[in-house]
């Protein structure tokens, strides 16, 4: 199966809100509420920030929120901060009982 | 504290096999599926598969079928990922990961990760 589709890069200014998209198909994103989002700073291990579309793990800032509509999931970061500059990856459970990742979106904070 | 500790970096010849280990602590080893994810330099994340440490059952992504073997040794609470017939494009960081405090066992919500093992394939 193909990876999920994410834009390669986005940018925003401190204090803004920014939304990332993650597009799959009716056999993965559209079929299950098992979409997760990861934040990865350069040279670091990925960190889970959203799971099951909209749930935040303990300790993750409430500036991060997730949603889904049809085959597209979204991650929104409110009140953008310099420390948010990182790569963001989405993942989804799929009908073949496998996990798909998106190609990742690099966020630049201007 | 729940953590996964992986074996050290490896440099391998093309065509060889590599085995990466992952030793958990802070939780019951057999209670959580162990997943393996890799990341080539400058590239995205790629899920490889999982092993159920309790039963030994596995599920591999089709791309790696025939080349990857995930095993575990319950006597020492360690999981292994072996990749054979190595090619240059297998050069990557290999991570083990689990869904510890999130729902499900294999839905992709990995909240605990190992530190990564860099495997370099070069002649």
Description of the molecule:
- The complex is a heterodimer of chains A (110) and B (123).
- Chain A is 0% helix and 43% strand.
- Chain A is mainly β.
- Chain B has 123 residues and is an all-beta fold.
- Chain B contains no helices and 11 strands.
- In chain B, the strands form 2 sheets. In chain B, strands 2, 4, 5, 6, 9, 10 and 11 form a 7-stranded mixed sheet that branches. A 4-stranded antiparallel sheet of chain B has the order 1-3-8-7, with no helix packed on it.
- Chain B starts with a strand and ends with a strand.
- Chains A and B meet through β7 and β8 of A and β5 of B.
- How would you classify the helix and strand content of chain B by structural class? mainly beta
Q: Low-confidence spans of chain A: pLDDT under 50, at least 5 residues?
A: none
Biggest sheet record of chain A: 6 strands, mixed
pLDDT average of chain B, as an integer? 96
What is the C-alpha radius of gyration of chain A, as a whole number of Å?
13 Å
- Oligomer category: heterodimer
- Structural class assignment of chain A: mainly beta
Furnish the topology, listing elements before pairings.
The complex is a heterodimer of chains A (110) and B (123).
Chain A: E1 9-12, E2 18-23, E3 35-40, E4 47-50, E5 64-69, E6 72-77, E7 87-93, E8 99-101, E9 105-109
Parallel strand pairs in A: 1-9
Antiparallel strand pairs in A: 2-6, 3-4, 3-7, 5-6, 7-8, 7-9
Chain B: E1 3-6, E2 10-12, E3 18-25, E4 34-39, E5 45-51, E6 58-60, E7 68-73, E8 78-83, E9 92-98, E10 112-113, E11 117-121
Parallel strand pairs in B: 2-11
Antiparallel strand pairs in B: 1-3, 3-8, 4-5, 4-9, 5-6, 7-8, 9-10, 9-11
Keywords:
heterodimer; A: 110 residues; mainly beta; six-stranded mixed sheet; three-stranded antiparallel sheet; 9 strands; 0% helix; 43% strand; globular; B: 123 residues; seven-stranded mixed sheet; four-stranded antiparallel sheet; 11 strands
């Amino acid at each position: 199966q193909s990876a999920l589709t994410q834009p390669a890069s986005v940018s925003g200014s401190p204090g803004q809100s920014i939304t990332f998209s993650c597009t799959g198909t009716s056999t993965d994103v559209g079929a299950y509420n098992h979409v997760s989002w990861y934040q990865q700073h350069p040279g670091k291990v990925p960190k889970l920030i959203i799971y099951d579309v909209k749930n935040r793990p303990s300790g993750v800032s409430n500036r991060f929120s997730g949603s889904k509509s049809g085959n597209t999931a979204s991650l929104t970061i409110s009140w953008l901060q310099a420390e948010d500059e990182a790569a963001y990856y989405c993942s989804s459970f799929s009908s073949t009982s496998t996990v798909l990742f998106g190609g990742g979106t690099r966020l630049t904070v201007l | 504290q729940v953590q996964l500790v992986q074996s050290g970096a490896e440099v391998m010849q093309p065509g060889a096999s590599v085995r990466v280990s992952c030793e958990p602590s802070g939780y019951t080893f057999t209670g959580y599926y162990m997943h393996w994810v890799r990341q080539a330099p400058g590239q995205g994340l790629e899920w490889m598969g999982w092993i159920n440490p309790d039963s030994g059952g596995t599920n591999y992504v089709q791309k790696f079928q025939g080349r990857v073997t995930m095993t575990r040794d319950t006597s020492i609470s360690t999981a292994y990922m072996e990749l054979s017939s190595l090619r240059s494009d297998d050069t990557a960081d290999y991570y083990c990961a689990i869904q510890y405090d999130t729902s499900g066992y294999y839905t992709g919500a990995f909240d605990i990760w190992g530190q990564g093992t860099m495997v370099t394939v070069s002649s």
